[in-house]
Specification:
The chain has five helices and six strands, in the order H-H-H-H-E-E-H-E-E-E-E. By secondary structure, the chain is of the alpha+beta class. It folds into two domains: 32 residues; 112 residues, Nuclear Transport Factor 2, Chain: A. It is globular.
């Protein structure tokens, strides 16, 4: 008799516990599977301002998008540089090859990393530019920029 009375109560408690555990698991998975880049994007394209400053040849404003340390490759010369060093390298490049325009031709990315390919018309030549950005702290920063002459 006692078991018959306790069984429905026990069964109900077990169902509630399973439901609570299931809700906790779903909340945990949802919280940790959300991509930081997606959560931070809100439709904003980080490559818009970067493209603008590349096309203008504005090394000062472009450098605001540089990570504290980044890799910068111009032609076959690659350097791990501080933000200030990279700004000077880009300034020197822009002085030698005055930009006329810059256009993104391809963008892709996953999670908190993105990259873009574009063409830079500068100094009467056309260059292929590859830009890698990474989401850190409060926004995207350029981790690597590569400029190559197109044949």
């Amino acid at each position: 008799m006692k078991f018959a009375v306790l069984f429905p109560i026990l069964f109900t408690k077990i169902l509630l516990m399973k439901k609570c555990i299931l809700c906790s698991v779903v909340a945990f998975v949802a919280m940790f599977s959300a991509s930081p880049a997606v959560a931070q994007d809100n439709g904003y394209d980080v490559f818009n301002p970067i493209s603008k400053y590349l096309g203008l040849g504005d090394a000062e404003r472009l450098s605001a998008w540089f990570s504290d340390n980044l890799e910068i490759t111009i032609f076959s010369d690659s350097n791990d540089s501080s933000r200030n060093q990279a700004r000077q390298i880009m300034k020197s490049f822009f002085n030698s090859y005055t930009p006329r325009s810059f256009e993104i031709t391809h963008k892709a990315g996953r999670s908190n990393m993105k990259y873009a390919l574009g063409t830079l018309n500068a100094g009467g030549e056309v260059f292929l530019v590859t830009i890698f950005v990474n989401f850190k702290d409060s926004g995207y920063k350029i981790q690597h920029i590569k400029i190559e002459q197109m044949d």
